[in-house]
Design brief:
Keywords: Aminotransferase, Pyridoxal phosphate, Transferase
Protein name: Ornithine aminotransferase
Helix content: 25-40%
Shape: globular
Radius of gyration: 23 Å
GO molecular function, one term: ornithine aminotransferase activity
Number of strands: 12
Strand content: 5-15%
EC number: 2.6.1.13
Order of helices and strands: HHHHEEEHHHEHEHHEHEHEEEHHHEEH
Cofactor: pyridoxal 5'-phosphate
Amino acid sequence: MQSMLTRLTRPGLAARTLSRAVHSGTQTASSVAPRVKRAERQLSSEEVYAREERYGAHNYHPLPVALERGEGLYVWDIEGRRYYDFLSAYSAVNQGHCHPRIVAALNAQASKLTITSRAFYNDVLGAYEEYITKLFGYDKVLPMNTGVEGGETACKLARKWAYSVKGIPKYQAKIIFAEGNFWGRTMAAISSSVDPSSYEGFGPFMPGFELVPYNDIPALEKALQDPNVAAFMVEPIQGEAGVVVPDPGYLTTVRELCTKYNVLFIADEVQTGLGRTGRRLAVDHEAVRPDLVVLGKALSGGIYPVSAVLCDDDVMLTIKPGEHGSTYGGNPLACRVAIAALEVLEEENLAENAEKMGNILRAGLNKLPKEIVTMVRGKGLLNAIVIKETKGTTLLKVSAETVPRHNFWYN
């Protein structure tokens, strides 16, 4: 990473660019903007907090830890204290922080070609498409950038399929979601949310979205009987809701019902997929095959924003040229990084390791005093503990007080 940054920011390159701009009579941002001198001294954690508070939007409330470095399962703050990273950037770094093989792939491709736009072919996209589709057993992949873009793409594909294949009347298609879902904060994503912090003050909302309780088969079957339902989009394990694991057989029955009522089964595997739960995909625990799979986060090992939607030709080819896309989606840099990230997951047997370590973790957590920890749940290394609620105590307060004292990173 450092070598890449050095190449992109070396003074000589900037000087030559400025020189050409001056001699040609053109103005660039670097020729007219005031130079900002970078501070030489290392800021303290408190100064980092203050600067973010002063210049950044207040859309997050971080724990009081200012991190500057990560390697494997560890992160270090700017005072040099080391932490175990149990959060793993919401499962974006399943391969560990700054995995050397993924970083090397990034550097090699970044020095060659980073982006072309989809107006042209490039020599990496096809290799990535072939690798990921064969790995997961689908006909096609549509590359995007963020997880929520993957979810939006899946919804668009479902609606397009509903009109062109299922025959739902124009603009009457419905998509069913489970209560407690979380797949992002775009307008479509919050339109399916039951969390007031996500949707309050942002209406009006996307039409055609309906909700059923999670892990409730009778409610789902009743909803799927509507002939205008195009798809059911669900997390195999609900992450933001608190790592909620459905009953055994839930996903199997979802698959059966979607097939019965000719409804697409969309598995949101952005957080649960790619080894985190002890399987390549969380749906693999029940050996079911969704019609569409949405991937993100660890698809790049935390190095670069990469997401993808996988499905077969009967769904994917309903979208024609110009009907969906992204400037950065499928760029050579993203594709090379994603190939490396997937190879690391496979060749280092990280799903198997997550299964093994998750069993050890839950066994240990279940030995904690029951008057404090009332429940432990999860699969692989996607887990949650339920702490007995006491008056005046919140998880944020406990975390903020515990992190500096014990040098642990809490989720």
